[in-house]
Amino acid sequence: MSRTSPEQSRRIQIIFILLLIAILVALPQVIKSDSTINLAVYVLLFVSLASSWNILGGFSGQTNLGHAAFFGAGALTTRMLWLSGWNLFPSLLAGGLVAVALALLIGVPAFRLRGVYFAIGTLALSQILYITVGNMLPMISSLPAQDLAVYQLAPRYYLFLAIALFTIGAGYALINSRLGLGIMAVREEEDAAESLGVSALKHKLVALALSAFFGGLTGGAFAFYHVGYYPQLTFGPEWTFDALMMVYIGGMGTIVGPIIGAVFFVILRELLALNLAEMHLIVFGTLFILVVLFLPGGFMGVWGKISKALARQQ
Amino acid sequence: MNERYLNWAVRVIGLVVLVTIIVACAPAPTATPVPPTKAPEPTKAAVAPTTAAPTTAAPATTKPPEPTKAAAPPAPAYIEIGASIPLTGKFGSLGQQVRPGYAYAVKDINDAGGIYVKEYDKKIPLRLTVYDDESDPTKAVSKMETLFADNKVVAYLGGAASDMHVATTAIAEKNKVPYLGIAFALNAIHQKGYKYLFSPFPKSVQQGPDTFTILNALILDQSQRPLKVAIFQEKSDWGAEQGALWKENAVKNGYTVVVAEEYAVGTTNFVDLINKAKAAGAETLLALPNQPSGEALVKQMVELGWTPKFSLIIRAPENVTWSTNLGKNGDYVTIFPGWHNGMKFPGVDKLNAAYQAEFKRPADLLTGPSYACVQILAAAIEKAGTLDRDKIRDAIAATNMTTVIGPVTFNPDGTAKVLDPLIQWQNGKLEMVWPKDQATKPLAYPAPAFDRR
Amino acid sequence: MLEALAQNLVYGILIGALYGLAAVGLSLVFGVTKFLNVSHGELLMLGGYASFWLFALWKVDPFISLPAAIIFLLVAGVVFYKLLFGRMVKLAEGDKIQNTLLVGFGLSLILQNLALQFWTADTRSITTAYSGAVFSFAGVRFPLVRVASLVIAFVLIVALQLFLRRTYTGKALRATVENWEAATLMGIDIQRVYLLSFVMGAALAGVAGALVAVGYSIEPAMGMSWTLKSLVVMVLGGLGSITGTFVGGIILGVTESATGFFLSLTYREVVGLVLFLLVLVFRPQGLFGVKEG
Question: Which residues of C touch A (CB under 8 A)?
Answer without folding.
Answer: 30, 36, 84, 87, 91, 95, 97-99, 101-103, 105-110, 112-114, 116-117, 224, 228, 231-232, 234-235, 239, 266-267, 269-270, 273-274, 276-277, 280-281, 284-286, 292
